[in-house]
Amino acid sequence: MKRFRIWISSFTLVQQFLTIVFITFTVLIFFIFAFLNRNIDSFTNTQMYVYIHRSQNEYLETRNNFKESNVVHFVYSTASRRYLNALTEEYADLLSNIDPDPEGGSIDSSFIYDNNSIVYSIISFDDNYRLVSIIKNNFRDEFRSALYSGVVNITFYVVGGLIALILIWVVSLIRPLDQIITYINKVKTGEKATLNVNRYDEIGEVAEALASMNDELSQQQRIRDEMIQNISHDLKTPIATIKSYSESIKDGIYPYDTLEKSVDVISENADRLEKKVYSLITYNKMGYLTDTGNNLLNLEMAPVVQKAILACKVVRSDVRIETDIDEDVFFHGEEEPWRVVVENLLDNSLRYAKSLIRISLSENLLEIYNDGEPIEKDRLDKLFKPYEKGNKGKFGLGLSIVKKVVETYGYSVTGENMNDGVVFRIFTTKKMKKPAKKKSKKGIIET
User: Fold this and answer.
1) What DSSP letter does each residue of 33-55 carry, written as one string?
2) Phi, psi dihedrals of residue 347, rounded to the nearest 5°
3) Is 427 helix (H, G, I), strand (E, B) or coil?
4) What is the mean pLDDT of the chain?
5) Which of 70, 101, 125, 167 qualifies as a cystine partner to 139, CB 3.0-4.6 A?
6) 225: domain range?
7) Which among 229, 263, 287 is the end of a domain?
8) What share of the chain is helix, strand, coil (3-state, %, to 5)?
9) How many domains does the chain have?
10) Ramachandran class of 113: left when φ > 0, alpha when ψ lies in -120 to 50, beta otherwise
């Protein structure tokens, strides 16, 4: 069976269709000759007895006024042991094969006469009489032939109609599939391609998915190109500064007043360069981050948040950080990536906050609010894309790293404008295994 499936799957749709048609007709012919023929004979005999019985009842009701061209009736007297109606020589030969007074007085039977099957029925009436009825052989043959032809014709019409419908269906499949193949070949060679498949079934879904995938790949390519340009620009400035200052110092010239101040400029640009490279390494590292867990809430988040606050609080001393942290909150994932997430969100909030940052941690939810200016509407949908920098942004990779980590561990992240600030939310609706609970803790951290 497996080999047959492999053999069939190697065919084109047209070849598969022709194979199905061949198998269908083979089975149909076998059905007609091996099954239908025998069953039609059985059905014909049954219907003949029904027909004879109806004719006998009508004959007994009307007697001499009854006329039936397909059934011949003979009245047999058990007292005189003879047939009462005139007999032709033809019927005499037939009747000689029939016992007119069977046990019980009635019988339905048949016999072979002159290579033909003769169907007859005997019923008793008026105590001493038997009605022997024989159906004419030509009527039985005509009935069987008509029935056989009707069944065969209907069968072929139905099968032919189904095959025509299947053919139309196969053609309707081939056309969009050809469109999809052409579209894929054009995309593969870099040509501009459009895919218009007006279907709402699985093929339509595949076509839509391919078009969407191509759009996404094009978007990712544009993002990569922009990233390369931005990286080149971001790295070029500090490298050029370091190079020019170094060459000037080598020539005995101090570009920034004194040797010490000039070296400080070189050191500052080296630090900038180091941070940019670190951000790129982190972004690339998070791009390969995988979730190998089993939806277990295995990471206690309160210490992660506290460590991130301690690492970031020295950035601005004029900002107050309020916390509402539930000690009994566990997230799914590893500590280092989650710490990077919290530090990046805190760093972003410290950059824009006026005087307050509020951090809330509860079951399946982490919120970091700052009272800074609202985010421009055209940037809200691009917050988490690489190199989308605000007016105070640095490298444009912080929030994209956040998104990578959060989505890897099955969470979602959003940035929303509030009436008096901006809030970032990390949350999940997935059901995960929970550890034992602890008490909550609230406080204020002054920076």
Assistant:
1) IIIIHHHHHHHHHHHHHHHHHHH
2) -60, -40
3) strand
4) 81
5) 70
6) 202-287
7) 287
8) 55, 15, 30
9) 3
10) beta
